[in-house]
Records
---
Amino acid sequence: MNYLDHSILSAIRFGGRPEIYTPIHKFIDSSKLYFHHYGHRMLLHNSYGAKAAISIFGDNIHNGEKLVSVRDIVFSHCEEDNISVKQMDVGFLLRNLTFNFFKKETLLRLEKDLKGHVAYHHIFEPYFMTGNLNALCLTVSDLGHSILAQTIRASDLISLPDSYYKFSVSVNEIMTGYFDLSKAIVPNTKQSLIKQVNEYRSK
């Protein structure tokens, strides 16, 4: 199921036009640009993805009829992709990590260099949520840089310390080399959802 299908399902569920929801669903599926495998859902189809979406789009959006929670839109996306509540916990991603990619020294250096920077909280959010250093792969990475570009000003992005780029990793490298993809989320879209999308399109 692609982000356009998810947008239609949001219109059915919450009201309004599908295009109102498209930016949010496109963001949640943007991890596919960095790892073109169904396992990409382990990156943003979770509680961190919801927090990142709220940072970008706000707590709510107006669909022309009423306010709709961005968190609810993200989690409905996850449910439509057949992701369980357990898998929506960002810790699920980390339990499939087979290598300690980030070291304590990395954390200390980044904390020192980013102190007082507007991006500090954004970058350390996954670590604050989990207490796991490897959670930094969501923000100190090519994917993380893309998310930052949507949450802070260009001038602040340019002023990120060199250490951020030095320690940044490739999401594709991590996912293919360090994750047990046999335990990744397997796509299994419910036929009833596909039917709803097709019926909406045929109107």
---
Amino acid sequence: MNFSDLGLAEPLLRAVREQGYETPTPIQAQAIPAVLEGGDLLAGAQTGTGKTAGFTLPMLHRLAHEPVVRDPRTNRVKIRALILTPTRELAAQVEESVRTYGKYLTLKSMVIFGGVGMQPQVDGLRRGVDILVATPGRLLDHHQQGTLDLSAVQFFVLDEADRMLDMGFIHDIRKVLAILPPRRQNLLFSATFSDEIKELADRLLNQPALIEVARRNAAADTVAQTVYMVGRDRKKDLLKELIERGDWHQVLVFTRTKHGANKLTDWLNANGVTAMAIHGNKSQSARTKALAEFKTGDLRVLVATDIAARGIDIEELPHVVNYEMPNVPEDYVHRIGRTGRAGASGEAISLVCLDEEDFLRDIEKLIKRQIPRQKIPGFEPPVGERAEPIVLGHRMTIGAGARGGRGGAGRAGATGRPGHAPQAGRRDLPREHRQDGAHRHDRAPARPGANTTAARPSADRPAARERAPMRLDLDLSAPPPRREGGRQGAPSHGGGARAGQGHGGRGHGAPDQRRGPGGPRPQRPR
């Protein structure tokens, strides 16, 4: 089967041919006809198999053959298609695909996300847009401030829906659905196909066609996976050894935390390996610069947290390294899915110390295969080394060494072991340690008089400074602690009782809750 057999318009086929594609992938071959028929769709496939083109091409075809909708007062083109993504990088990537495949059509598209100024986005929306790609937080910002009209939306695409749920966007999704017209075509695409995704589909979709071209949570067969067992303190040296021995020039390295990404980046640069980090604490300009240099090959190593796992699409990326194993098994599939894309071959290397063996077993259980293990002399775990807790904060510990520990979340919680609540590994963590940026606030300053709402979690917002989780260890038999220079028992300024920092505060984790012009009121501790 060729793309020409799918019933797409000639301008789209011309753009596809220019990209070097003739044969559709399995997800494209099934999704494109289903979308052209006009019904709702629930589609799942391995990451890197062409899901974006699977909904972009038929959507462009249908929009091109239907009349443009204009505002009767301003004659402005109204938005007819909305694509919602979880991260900035993925939003930019999807909108680039829309422009690439629609280059011979007269349709207009744009992308909006947080971390950048709103005014250029407002100006673009005023000029009129047919297709809008957005992240949830910034989309709701524009709607709240009256700069966005979604009343004419005919197509709604929820891309990477599993990541949306994983990052706590369900409430934002519901708010978006509430402002969309009831009659529309809904498309839900996902890299993994969990029971939670099907539950969301039951509420969102109307008698959808169901496409699942691969078994759930499977890694692509084109990715060669290898585990190197390594001593806890030898990971950096082993990574440098593998890069130099293999003469690798484009390596995507994943860490568990933003601090770990920065620390590893500094070490690599200090030891002669050019590297940059990309995560939620980086400004949008820094993230864009790092990704652009990595794509062109000017940057040898890009160190990323899981927030970037869905937004990095690089043709023939040869190497992905799990410098730290993810504590949520599904994240492993998304990480290594950055290589071996579109049928190309790739290599996924995991550096595993004794502390992470539980994570490795959970991953192997998820993907239903054992990953080959290797040891390199001089880097293997030293004799007598034992598993230790992995510390994410002052009191939060995970991993094999955390079992039964005083501050540890243990196997049932922090390791995300299958058999417990869905995504337990992420959701059982305190908010400070959920995946990078998942609870951050990027609410733009509201115009005076505009209604404001409590800040929502979003990966497309600038990250707040990391805080240690608050833990209350109460001993009622002991006298209250005495503070130097103050009365007994008075809370310190850095404690969890500060507005928005306690577990009951709605503004939890926000960098600054002080009221600004039109901004939200600071939350009182409850």
---
Amino acid sequence: MAKQEALKTAIQCRHYAMCKIDFLGTGLCPPAWDKHYVSYFPQGRMDIYAALAEGRIPVTRRLVDIAESCSLCGICDKQCYFVTELRPLTVMEALKKWIDNHLQQGLEITDPEADDLLSDLWAIVGQEWASHDPAILVSYAHDPGPFTGIQMPRYVVLPGSTEEVSQVVTLCQKRKIPYAVRGNGSSVMGFVFSKDGVVMDLHRMQDIQINKKNWIVSVGPGVSAFDLQSEVSKEGFRTNLAEPAALVCANIMCSGIFSTYSNAYGTAADNFVNAEFVDAKGQIFHLNQREAPNLYAFQHEEMPLPGICTRVDVRLHPKTEDEQGLLIPFAEFQDATAFARELSQRRIGLALAVLGLEYISTFIAPTVELAHKIKRVFQEDLGMEYAVLMIGDSYAAQAIKSMSEVTMDGEMMKTLILGLPKLVDREWQSLIQDLEGSQRPYETLLKSEMLPIIKAILLPSPGSLAASVTPDLQEFFAELYSRPELTDMVWLNDFRIISSRMGRDKHVVAFIVYVPLDNIPLIQEINREFQKTADEYGIKNDYGFLTPLDMGKRAVLEYDYYGDHTDEEETQRMQQAVMAIGRVLEDFMLRYPGVKWIKYVFNQGFSRKESFLYT
């Protein structure tokens, strides 16, 4: 029974790589600090245990070292539960027990012999940083994406410099062996694998150099969004970054980086000043070299990787002391989107987004169960379906409050977050039932003058919210939510640690589409087609968010499909749904200028945004 439970947890790993960043201040899994291979992180051990249980890998000396290096400290349980509600510590215990039993029984321990190519890789990076051990390879072999499957590489190599990357590429070209480049693997769509080839993991290259005078920060390819934001925030800056575990160089290459701050800071080439690459022949070039390949250009076709980005000089943006967040609730999508567009056109706010309730409820609730209940409260009790998020200074906040009768400020959001469990209680329901008039409940209840009453009913506190999680983690969650940043809309948008919860219920397949913001009916039609297609195949789905771009002329839209990647039948339905909606999106692009599926921006993230927004 224990083995079955451990396996059930192990195969549910979402591969979001959140265990590779210290986003809760708990520290990292101790061996991970200097080992770097994914196998030494909780995510890797989950993959290893699943592979052992399914008979896909043997016990090797490296596997023994991986298992024995785990101290059962429990950091992984806190991190993973916060994001997915999974408890990986049971898997770590099961892995150690498996290896202990194997050793006690005197069973075979294999040690794969080095071949010529591995020896050549060792000559480049050192013996510690290249491996063909199955216990290393298996953690680079799959992700939860619906089209991925098992793609076992032959080698994994961790270069430590641009020169070493160049030499590895040159070697692979000489030996005619395929290679793939891996950031943190958090794209989870099968893009970072090399079946029977080489996977190049850039995790060791974590250099950060801040140049305050030139308003840039030079970033190595192993630096995550969370770690970069942490460093620049100490100097009073922010950078425009995406998901916290995503590696910055890889994220720019893949998608150009978009976030709620793209309203003010832009996307793609707006994010950087220069970048360094290693091309397919192993040659090193910089974007600002006159003879360099023109990566600022865009072609409307699926493009191969133009090179490996080994450094990027990212733009820094100053923060002001009066920055704050507001949520403006709406019942209708068209009203929320029109309002967000107006704010963008008027240059009001830095970050802007039209958020759906699936996002809002999932992000602020620490459990799936509570998120489902809160979503119902917002929809059925308050009459609210969307909210416009704004991050800006006090002048922006003042302007918005003059434009909208109902705004939810930082104190209101902190009250709601810390009082979430009581939102489903009878006293809150009684307050709503006592309301009279033609207005929607949120238009009355969420006004600022109602805050004292809301506080009296919800009794918000870290302990109250913590009571909704599993008992043995309640003390940890109470301490965690005592920290002001966990309820601060500005901090949460800068560091985005709660957005990783979007795949908590099931693995998420996110569809990103650039759309013309002056045609809201078209955007609504695209959303309806997303929903219609997913419903046809029985796939859970929901609207995600929309952020204005280029002062309200365009926007980036996300719609999400959710599937259980461990269910073969559901995965097949997800595959069919993805292919079907792909055909729909192709048709939209043919019929409407300004509609662009991010599929065509992939590997062209260094291009100018104008090249794909207006073509």
---
Amino acid sequence: MISTPGACPGDHHQGICMPRIMTALACSCALLVTPAVGLLAADQLINTPSSIALQQQDLDFVRGAASGGQFEIKSSQYVIDKGITGDARKFAEDMLKDHGALGAKLTDLLHGKGITAPDSLNDADAKTLEDLKKVPDTQLAKAFVDDQVAAHDAAVALFEKEEKEGKDVDLIKFATDNVDLLKTHQKHAKAMQ
């Protein structure tokens, strides 16, 4: 291949215009990197480069499951510390145990993928917890149970959505393996209303 003088703005190597080759290579690399950067930018809670391997549905599931689990633990610990008794206390103790174990499983699964699990509540869960803390002690058990029904309705829907729409096989399996436990919690919470 012979290049015409003046057609190539830089060095030639065996008739090949090197600046054009370098520009094409740089553009190709940019096209390969752009989707990964977009996924990482969409991920506000999981701040590790490996999180770019997860699709949006899986990221939403991880965020929701982590926040929901933390809400269950924090709200349950709060009402236990406030001294609630009876069925609501037993339910809160079960939430501490079950959601603590569920959170540990999720954290381990994500750790195996090189991803740090979110460890804070999303805005909606944080507001619900703050609202619970404003409830008078005489109404605390009822408010706690009502919050648990709503939280478990949302959790069951989240886990079922991951089962149907998730892309990561490990997260789909996690959702499938644990949705029945959440349905049991949901049923018990509704029975206390």
